[in-house]
Amino acid sequence: MRLLRSALLLTAASFPVAVGAQTAPAPTQVSVKPIAYTERTLPNGLRVYAIRDTGTPNVSVQVWYDVGSKDDPKGKSGFAHMFEHLMFKSTRNLVSEQMDRLTEDVGGYNNASTNDDYTNYYEVIPANHLQRLLFAEADRMASLVVEPKSFGSERDVVKEELRQSTLSRPYGKLFSLYYPAIAYATHPYARGTIGSLENLEAAGIDDVRAFHATYYRPDNAILVVSGNFDPAQLNSWVDQYFAGIKKPSAAIPRVTVAEPARTKAVTRTVYEPNTPLPAVLVSYHVPADRDADIAALTVLKAVLATGESSRLYESVVYRDQLAQSAEAFLDTKQATGNMVVYAILAGGKTVEAGEAALKREVARFRDAPVTAAELAEAKNEILTQSIQSRETAEGKASTLASAVLVDGDPQAADKQLAAIARVTAADIKRVARKYLGDNQSATIRYMPLAAKPAGGIADAITVAPTVQVADLKAPANIEIVTPAPEGQRVQPPAPSAPVSPTIPQPVKTRLANGMRLVTVERHDLPIVTAYLVTAGGAATDPANRAGVSSLSADLLTKGTKTRSATQIARAVEGLGGAIGSSAGSDGAAVDVTVKSDQLAPAMAILADVAINPAFAPEEIERARTQQVDAVTLALKDPAQVAGLVADRAVLGASPYGAPNGGHAAVAEGNHAHRHHGSVCAELPAEPGNADHGRRRHRGACQGFGGGAVRFLEIDQHGNREHAAGHVPETSCHRRRHARSGSSGRRGCASCDRAVGCTLLSASSWQHGPWRRLLVPVKPGNPDQAWSGLWRRQRA
Fold it and tell me: Do residues 501 and 768 touch, judged by C-beta distance below 8 A?
């Protein structure tokens, strides 16, 4: 609280502040603490990592298996992901879906994801339920029931998931199927994690049993427990439940094939239905995540595509208006990975122009060094994102587990941060020349079917016949597990005594101008988020102007009386922070997140944005064009269309029944007013926005009628990168949303219509109950509203 008040006083004294040329930010004064853990290995080979944090009342239990979609048997792509679903069925002692009862019914949650290199299962529960979850995870490791009925039903679920998430969604095939297929000529990474309908149909019950016996064994897994626990008690429980699981004698099959270097550029053009705007994707091979060059490539990616001051956004989206979005992600793996750049083109722009723009920006790294300001900004951004990824017990566990299975070293994430701090401009130029040459590129031009010339032939993008895939060899004497009779099941142990949470108390102050200030003080991590919230949103949009509040909110960060949009982005991102504004049904918000040592200058920018938005005509036209393109994309996504129809069906012609973002015809006629809408730190739900890799950034939320929120969370295990609408290397489909490995639920601040503006600040806003404090809820019990919102996203 003292820190925030000091920032407010400094803001008042120095405001307004004109911003001139960008300079390199001052050296950072904060750092990321290494993850403190203990490690031991059981006689059966299970590696156990414990991360104790007595500051939380929760605990995260995670079991990661060293098997992923690269290990799918020949002719059975998508197999590892389908098996992930089966792990939520019955065991010898647990009935089907009992994992949900052990977690969700006590206020926690559980989920799983399938990656190219691993499959993980994770839960967050109150700390007094730790023993119950250890029992459950051990039971499904040792005695999963694989029988024809559940196998058939889950295979059908995955097939429908493939139809919805990949085949029906705009750009679904681009990220799920075409990108991996064109990226690899030899390695089984070429196969999409989700698989194919034909391959899924080809899987049989005997294959599933053989897969479980081959890979789901203690010496092929790690157990990570993070949160509030007694170390001696934890060791006792781990020994009790896991030590007795037998270690098979057969060797674990491993993928050993190496992907050859690409020396000749590859380009393919495809035409697909339900493609509202052309897209182009370019990928380049990069080394394994444990390679020393990954640090420089990580910084390069941040300069290229992190935030609105990045090179891609500034040139391709903002200045030239070639693309509705232009992004990049670093898709690193145990073996050869990829640097990927892509753009969803703006209306009326050509794929050729988009491709040339992307490759031009990549070439700049090869031709000239990045500036000192760009280098400092990128490192600051990475540092902030790393702090955010460690805000929760779950985030720390995921970071460590990914380091173990992807890099072979539990300290790999900490070592990479240290290496990133040492990266120079010369390092970035060197790795760009080494890995990002034009002759090393693989390009996909993804076109609407209507653009296909008469008589034209599209290129085929399929998994190359040279990709090496091994047959699944069933181990001898596979035990077929059956459920124990009702009276003979071993029941999960009872919960222990509840752990009393230490909840930070909000301190409320009213400023001289009537604005309320609410501060929530924490000191475990050096990061601060401030929300400025005001009433008025989409529900108050004028007639025939649906979306005007959303457009107005977007424009808040696009220029003030003394700062241009570019200057705002460079100033905040140069501090390693992020600023955003958004509108929902009942309110509007602008927020900023920075490291704590950068709070004072960030608050000055937040105040300028909130008080002095310029609404310049050229910015209005730019934002309107982008919003029209975004609506065009949304109307081609079946899930989003269904949501719009449902809102209208339930809420009718009331203000809550109209889409917050408007529709294309209305957006084209909208002019920005000082009319601010909701409170969500919002990412477009349609594909085409990938600004949430490597933690890294924010979850997405959309306003529901009545002020509730739908969460679309972003998977962020360790150092993995993802694209919106599809997670290129991680298939996390048991829930409709991709779960967040670092509990990165970015909430939305509720507003009080009768009071006006409220400034919410929390130095660690994602912790525990404060997620509820910052989420709009329906009238009534906030806990019930949160639970309903959470479950609404389940598959």
Answer: yes
Report pLDDT for 29.
Answer: 57
* b/e 328-366 (16+ beta carbons within 10 angstroms → b): bbbbbbbbbbbbbbbbbbbeebebebbbebbbebbebbb
Closest CA to 131 of 52, 63, 59, 64: 59
SS3 content of the chain, % helix, strand, coil (to 5): 40, 20, 45
Q: How far apart are CA 701 and CA 681, in angstroms?
A: 7
Nearest to 56 by CA among 232, 227, 234: 227
Please give the backbone phi and psi of residue 428, each rounded to the nearest 5 degrees, phi first.
Answer: -65, -45
Q: What are phi and psi of 346, to 5 degrees?
A: -75, 160
Count of alpha carbons within 13 angstroms of residue 146, beta-carbon side: 26
Among residues 756, 755, 650, the alpha carbon closest in space to that of 704 is found at 650
β 516-520/758-762 pair status: parallel
Helix (H) or strand (E) run with residue 110 in it: strand 109-115
* Averaged pLDDT, 42-68: 97
pLDDT at 785 over 70: no
φ, ψ for residue 367 (rounded to 5)?
A: -90, -30
Predicted confidence band of residue 663 (pLDDT cuts 50, 70, 90)? low
Distance of alpha carbon 11 from alpha carbon 612, whole angstroms: 14
Alpha helices per DSSP H over 422-475:
425-435
The residue whose two tokens read 């001289």 is: 512
Compute CA distances 465 → 177, 263, 429, 461, whole Å.
15, 19, 35, 12
Listed in sequence order, the residues at least 6 apart from 240 whose beta carbon sits closer than 8 Å to its beta carbon are: none
The 119-126 sheet, strands edge to edge: 38-41, 47-52, 221-227, 58-65, 119-126, 109-115, 730-731
Distance CA(699)–CA(347), nearest Å, equals 26
Which CB contacts under 8 angstroms, 24+ apart, belong to 512-516?
514/756, 515/756, 515/757, 515/758, 515/759, 516/755, 516/757, 516/758, 516/759
Q: Quick count: other Cβ atoms within 10 Å of Cβ 408?
A: 12
User: Rounded CA gap, 726 and 340, in Å?
Assistant: 14
d(CA 747, CA 696): 15
Banded pLDDT at 150 (limits 50, 70, 90): confident
Mean pLDDT (whole number) for 26-39: 78
Asked whether the bond before 728 is cis by omega within 30 degrees of 0, the reply is no
Angle between helices 425-435 and 294-305 (to 10 degrees): 90
DSSP character at residue 218: G
Position 368 scores a pLDDT of 96
Which long-range CB contacts under 8 A does 289-293 form with residues at least 24 apart?
A: 289/332, 289/333, 289/334, 289/337, 289/406, 289/407, 289/412, 289/719, 290/406, 290/407, 290/408, 290/409, 290/412, 292/419, 293/431, 293/434, 293/435
Q: Is this prediction's pTM over 0.85?
A: no
Q: With CA atoms as reference, report the closest residue to 529 among 602, 466, 457.
A: 602
Collapsing DSSP states into helix, strand and coil, what is residue 696?
Answer: coil
Residues sharing a CB contact under 8 Å with residue 631, sequence separation 6 or more, in sequence order? 547, 659, 661, 662, 663, 664, 667
Instruction: Report whether 179 contacts 725 (CB < 8 A).
Output: no
Dist. CA 424–CA 375, nearest whole Å: 8
Instruction: Find tokens 């290397």 and name the residue.
Output: 729
The dihedral sign for the CA sequence 642, 643, 649, 652: negative
Q: Please indicate whether residue 69 or residue 743 has the higher confidence score (pLDDT).
A: 69
For the chain, give the percent of residues with pLDDT over 70: 79
* pLDDT computed for residue 662 by the predictor: 63
Distance CA(116)–CA(675), nearest Å, equals 46
Task: Name the band, by pLDDT with cuts 50, 70 and 90, for residue 709.
Answer: very low
